[in-house]
Specification:
37% of the residues lie in helices and 17% in strands. Helix 2 packs across helix 3, helix 9 packs across helix 18 and helix 19 packs across helix 23. The strands form 4 sheets. Strands 11, 12, 13, 14, 15, 16, 17, 18 and 19 form a 9-stranded mixed sheet that branches. A 6-stranded mixed sheet has the order 1-2-5-4-3-6, sandwiched between helices. Strands 7-10-8-9 form a 4-stranded antiparallel sheet, covered by helices on one side. It contains 24 helices and 23 strands.
């Protein structure tokens, strides 16, 4: 349900600044990172459908409005249908009418109204790079204005934004003697790419300053610490596109770009920026490309003798079906180059695979679909810092839920509690081989799965991950500062924390996801390979039960003697129901679907457990969420909840006390 109302649904926001409203609107669209460069991008719609979608508010209404205005709808009619101020509608109409007839206007005029190089080059049917060259040859470049935030203060703000509006001049930059680094932020917070990357960006800036570098941040998220006035030496509020970041880098004449801490957004920009001649600090572009490219990465792991799930990249529906039928089911299928496992799915038969390929993804030469054999084993992951030869692994994070549930939605436990010593050694050996072969300089995240007594490599991310801040905090190892030193040429050999896998701490840390299903109507609650959580909590304890118990309490999920649990029919749940009953918790198996719905509505249960994909389980999960009843869709999660019920509530300790008490 995309309708907007009194219930908040947004996960984040962007801020775009221009010298006029039209310019700011154009920058705002491409800052959203939703695959649109302008308001007219996307499919066409009938007049009746446009009118219907304008009368109710949704996240897409402004795009419907643009299509309607381009099709001839008057400002008055648009105002009547939307109740949006005519002032804003007139500005949008000006933009869409120009976009509908771009050839009739000067490039300088179009740029001053917020049009991107990509939009203009596509409309004019020329290569984007060639368009950019011609624009620069014509002397059409952005200038940068300072945002005046001070009120009678002597210190000037270091906020800047670009504009193409005629008559504006560049605000001068004081030249210094320090080398300059441009840190690329991660843009708007959304499922799959959250505040963890802002933590990384800020820590990177502070570390660079301590190393004597001048720091510049480009980002567009007004909620973050990275966009505070005193974080970097200078801040640019700009869209995170190649065009906008390249312009900032050229204005500042930077000595290096940091792309490892801006999530997939920054990594995706690296190839274009490097081809433009900008130096990438840390891991080389060739290594980033190898890790991100499925075929190249598969060849590397084969060369290193590291097991991986069988699979391949398909560039057509027919090729994907062929790979799937050859591998056999179940399969993990997903698009390439995505965040948060977006559009990732487990399919169990030929019909489900075909439906996924037809409806869920668009397959192109640039964006193949990845088809892998699904390994339902124990998933673990590591975050490491490498200097190309030496590396430091602060610990191994073990997932409670088996592979197939996105790592961001899994309960993660440090230190790993069920791996054998041989398995841990193998993970360290594989990680070392990968880092040395790729020449990783900086941070890396690698995910493994233990399946039938064999360790398989699932994924290599040559950047910071969402677990990097957690591992830094619970181990006391400043991973980002070490990574920055490595990027600037230092060796890890003499670092004070050691090398290889660091000794385990004498306590447990449990990372637990938090969901916002109650705010999003008709959204599936069942966990799977596509990330759904919007946040997380951390539980610390001297033993695993206590840490798990604290984490569940922190995200609002507890069970105690006398509570009632509704469970759908599933044979795997029987042993867990016995455990619940032994702890004095009443269980009821759903035998009458309609009756169970009514009991949920009446608040007769404290928890719903519905792990299956069927329609009845979906409806029960949605109803439970609507009535504020906690819901579990993974058997492994339920088992962890039960294990934590008997935890002893010990005296609370601060993180510093845990770190000192090792």
């Amino acid at each position: 349900d995309r309708r907007l109302g009194t219930q908040m649904k947004a996960t984040g926001e962007i801020m775009a600044i221009g010298s006029n409203l039209e310019e700011a609107l154009g920058k705002a669209v491409r800052s959203l990172e939703i695959g649109r460069q302008s308001f007219l991008d996307g499919p066409d719609f009938s007049v009746s459908m446009l009118s219907h979608n304008l009368s109710s508010s949704s996240d897409e209404r402004f795009f419907y409005l643009a299509k309607a205005l381009a099709g001839g709808m008057s400002v008055e009619e648009a105002h009547r249908l939307t109740k949006i101020s005519s002032y804003f509608i007139e500005a949008l109409k000006k933009v869409v009418l120009l976009e509908s007839n771009i050839e009739a206007y000067d490039i300088s005029e179009l740029k001053a109204l917020g049009f991107s190089d990509r939009t203009l080059s596509q409309k004019l049917q020329i290569d984007e790079n060639r368009f950019r060259e011609k624009r620069i040859e014509a002397g059409i470049r952005p200038v940068y204005q300072r945002i005046k935030t001070e009120a009678g203060q002597s210190k000037e703000s270091a906020y800047y934004y670009s504009t193409y509006v005629e008559g504006k001049s560049n605000y001068p930059i004081k030249k210094g003697n320090k080398p300059k680094a441009l840190v690329i932020g991660s843009g708007p917070i959304r499922i799959g790419q959250g505040i963890e990357f802002d933590y990384c960006s800020v820590k990177a800036v502070w570390a660079l300053k301590r190393q004597g570098w001048e720091t510049i941040i480009v980002n567009n998220n007004p909620e973050t610490v990275s966009t505070d006035f005193d974080t970097a030496d200078r801040l640019y509020f700009e869209p995170l596109t190649a065009e906008d970041v390249l312009a900032v880098a050229e204005r500042e004449d930077v000595d290096g770009l940091i792309v490892q801490f801006g999530g997939q957004t920054a990594i995706n920009l690296a190839p274009t920026l490097a081809l433009a001649g900008l130096p990438i600090l840390g891991t080389a572009l060739s290594a980033i490309d190898l890790a991100e490219d499925r075929k190249k990465c598969h060849e590397l792991l084969n060369h290193l003798g590291i097991p991986q799930a069988e699979g391949g990249a398909a560039y057509s529906l027919q090729e994907a079906m062929g790979i799937g039928l050859k591998l056999g089911f179940p399969l993990m299928v997903r698009p390439s180059y995505v965040i948060g496992g977006r559009a990732m799915e487990i399919v169990h038969n030929e019909e489900e695979l075909y439906r996924y390929l037809k409806l869920a993804v668009e397959i192109t030469e640039d964006q193949p679909v990845l088809v892998d054999r699904y390994l339902e084993g124990k998933e673990v992951e590591i975050d490491a810092v490498s200097d190309g030869t030496n590396l430091i692994i602060p610990g191994i994070l073990e997932h409670i839920e088996r592979a197939g549930i996105h790592s961001g939605d899994s309960i993660g436990v440090y230190p790993a509690f069920s791996l054998s010593e041989e398995d841990e050694k193998k993970i360290v050996r594989y990680t070392t081989s990968i880092c040395r072969s790729l020449g990783i300089r900086g941070v890396v995240n690698i995910q493994f799965v233990l399946y039938q007594n064999q360790i398989y490599c699932l994924e290599i991310n040559p950047r910071a991950s969402r677990t990097l801040p957690i591992m830094s905090k619970v181990t006391g190892i400043p991973l980002i500062e070490l990574a920055i030193k490595v990027m600037l040429g230092e060796s890890l050999r003499d670092n004070p924390y050691g090398l290889g896998l660091i000794k385990k701490k004498p306590y447990y840390a449990v990372k637990m996801p938090v969901f916002s299903f109650e705010k999003l109507g008709n959204v599936e609650v069942l966990l799977g390979p596509e990330m759904r959580s919007t946040g997380e909590v951390l539980g610390l304890g001297k033993d695993l039960k206590t840490a798990i118990h604290k984490a569940f309490i922190s995200c609002g999920l507890t069970l105690q003697c006398g509570d009632r649990v509704l469970v759908t029919k599933n044979g795997s749940l029987v042993p867990l129901l016995e455990k619940l009953q032994q702890k004095g918790i009443h269980t009821e198996i759903c035998t009458d679907y309609l009756q169970s719905l009514q009991k949920l509505k009446e608040g007769n249960f404290n928890l719903l457990v519905a792990p299956d994909k069927c329609k009845e389980d979906f409806n029960l999960r949605r109803q439970a969420v609507e009535y504020g009843i906690p819901t579990i869709s993974s058997i492994d999660t339920l088992n962890a909840l039960i294990e934590g019920i008997d935890a002893f509530d010990s005296m609370p300790l601060s993180l510093q006390e845990y770190l000192k008490g090792e």
